[in-house]
C-alpha cells in the first residue's frame, strides 16, 4: 500500500523536473527582447519554414568564411543560446555578414 509520504517522495521530484524542463525549453527558444534593432550596416531576415540557422548562415556569409563562424556571429548578435529557430522569427545579420557580396 502506498502512503501519502511515499507518494510525495515520488511526485515532488517528477513535478520539479517537468517544470524545469518546460522552463528550459521556453528560454532556449524564446527570442530575447533586449536585442538591439538592426543598424544601417546590418540586414534582417525572417525565418521561413524549413530554414535552419546553418542554411541562413551559409547564404549570408562571405566567401572564405566558415559557416560555423557565421552561425556563431548570428547567434551572438541575436542573443541565442541555442541554434533552434522558428518560422516567422526575425534575425539580425551582423555587419560582418551583411556587408559582404555573395
UniProtKB/TrEMBL annotation:
InterPro entries (alphabetical): LysM, LysM_dom_sf
Top-level taxon of the source organism: Bacteria
SUPFAM superfamilies xrefs: LysM domain
Stretches assigned to the LysM domain: 43-93
Gene3D superfamilies the record matches: LysM domain (3.10.350.10)
Protein name, per record: LysM peptidoglycan-binding domain-containing protein
Organism (species): Cohnella ginsengisoli
